[in-house]
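Can't paste images in this forum, so I'm doing it all in text. The chain is below; anyone willing to post the predicted structure tokens underneath?
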Amino acid sequence: MLSKKKKANENEAVSTTYANRFFTKPIPRFRMPNDGLDADVVYQMIHDELNIDGNPALNLATFVTTWMEPQAEKLIVETLNKNLVDQDEYPQTGKIQERVINMLARLYHAPESKEYIGTATIGSSEAIMLGLLAHKWTWRANRKKQGKSTQNPNMVIGADVHVVWEKFARYFDVEMRIIPMQKNRFTITADEVKQRIDENTICVGVVMGTTFTGQLDPVQDINTMLEEVEKEKGWNIPIHVDGASGGFILPFLYPAFKWDFRLSHVRSINVSGHKYGLVYPGVGWLIMRDKSDLPEDLIFYVNYLGSEEATYTLNFSRGSAMMIVQYYNLIRLGKKGYRLVMQQSLENARYLASKVRRIRNIRLITEDIKLPILALTVKKKSEFTVFQMSDKLRERGWIVPAYSLPADASEVEVLRVVIKENFSHDMADMLVTDMQRFAKELREQCKIKPGQQNKSQNHKHIC
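Text version of the structure:
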């Protein structure tokens, strides 16, 4: 007679994954199990649990790429086990990183007479911190040469910046001089910057595609103002351009627009490869206009990977896969390909905007749509709010974030829609249809008074 254990093993050998006995037990959550589980079972359990997550194809909240070509995904799988920092063992990977840096530096019009420099990062957050560290160190060195105090460094930024700027200020002890938003102004101005800079300003931060509204800070006006200040007072204040969202759009859609190294005070630029660079997370890039903009004492040299290597990152070991497929995209698409992708994204954003304008009580925050990013608000909160619309859209699978703007404009509440490569004309029609239906539904619910609610229909008074 077969033992119970032997019978169980035989049954599992001929059963489907879902008929396995482990599916009658909870998945380990907080303690490592004593015994391991079958690989197929573990895969299926985790795979099924992740079905609770939103659908990336309907995620209009994220700027991050959610689709890549099969050939790119194949390269990702083939290079997942290569450590980008280990360029002694993987020298060709290092050369590819250098190629991308050169391509981006030229795309951003780095002067050929200078020795530009750059690095791959986990994303724009790391790139921004590295760029700002370089500016702080450069400012401090110049102050020491002049025999002046190196206390109280500051940077001037708008309230439209990403939270990483605040992190840098707190982590590295730099005063933030924030230009607040106003009810009808959501970017910074040259005059507002001029009021806040002084000899202790390590840099001015400008954003090409703000997280809140997708708008562009007036970098040319700010650069002109800084040139005048330098002539008048001798303050050579650099600009760091946060091109996380716009850095892979502006060169292709608006090649004549000067926002990059063509402007004299732009000394560093960060860009997110995993946003409109069309790469999965996470890869970002920092490009410095000239090697002299990166102080030597911020670069570390290590030899314990086999040969001496220079490193300028906050992290050390990291995967090379996303950096590799950034190179894939650059040579696969070329300038023409990127231009076509960005044009269709912008066209679909403007098409969506034309449809949204017809929805009662919803309006665009800005009519000047330069990037494929829409910021929407409601005219009458008495009918419904952006938060209620966001919740209703989630019922259909759409992920559209709702939030209020920072201080001094906090009464403005926003729905943001980020249009990416895989958002089609048909998807825009479907989204607008859902928004129209939900707007009508929310208005109807708003008319129902608390004493008139029909409990059987489970109406909820929301006004």
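The chain has three domains: 8-53, 73-330, 338-446. The two ends are 71 Å apart (CA to CA).
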